[in-house]
Amino acid sequence: MAKYFDVHPENPQQRTIGSVADSIRSGALVAYPTDSCYALGCQLGNRDGLARIRSIRNLDDRHHFTLVCQDFAQLGQLVQIDNDVFRAIKASTPGSYTFILPATKEVPRQLLHPKKKTVGVRIPDHAVTQALLAELGEPLLSSTLLLPDEPEPLTQGWEIKERLDYLVDIVVDSGECGTEPTTVIDFSGGEAEIVRRGAGDTTRFE
């Protein structure tokens, strides 16, 4: 049965955030809010957590997982990024964007796209997510909480607790999230390619 934490959306309780972070370090799979919608997350090297996310979402090995980072210092360790791409991403973060880029050797192989060797990265603009990332001191392996055959992500913490009670270990609820996932921009070919139009404005990448 999942533990349920009610967290203030703007001033998250530090003790609660610390407890969630400790659980993630111990192998927990968490459902947590972001600036686009709820996501599933676990520690980067958590193979069991990765398998559970794949199972919950019914994902194949071509799915781009997202590494959710606190800041550019973390992001820069995970992906290869040149100056032009850096400037384009810097202008759009933090925000509701996921960027697909060639991964560095810091990223576990099982997270990479099997052919392209790429991974998704993002820096969210959400107080609870940022507090959790700061407490963890490392990125979160994440995927949008979109269940198979459902058109939109789950938006309410209590509903996630109800439906995924025995599939996740923790539900962090900070109020209703949106239903629109991040905008996905693929920079792996050097030029910006809009893969998915979502919560982030695509104008600067057109």
Would you kindly provide a written description of the structure presented here, covering whatever features stand out?
By secondary structure, the chain is an alpha/beta fold. The protein is built from six helices and ten strands; from the N terminus they run βαββαβααββαβαβββ. It starts with a strand and ends in a 10-residue tail after the last strand. It has helices at 14-25, 47-57, 72-78, 83-90, 127-136, 157-163, and strands at 3-6, 30-32, 39-43, 66-68, 97-102, 118-122, 140-144, 170-173, 183-186, 193-196. The mean pLDDT is 93. Helix 1 packs across helix 5.
Kindly, what is the distance between the CA atoms of the first and last residues, rounded to a whole number of angstroms?
Answer: 45 Å
Strand content: 15-25%
Strand order of the largest sheet: 1-8-2-3-7-4-6-5-9-10
The radius of gyration is 16 Å
Number of helices: 6
Q: What characterizes the major β-sheet?
A: 10 strands, mixed
**How many E strands?**
10
Helix content: 25-40%
Low-confidence stretches: none
Q: Structural class from helices and strands?
A: alpha/beta
Question: Shape, please?
Answer: globular
- Average of pLDDT: 93
Give the SSE string. EHEEHEHHEEHEHEEE
InterPro entries: DHBP_synth_RibB-like_a/b_dom, Sua5-like_dom, SUA5_domain
Pfam families: Sua5_yciO_yrdC (PF01300)
Domain YrdC-like: 14-200
Protein name: Threonylcarbamoyl-AMP synthase
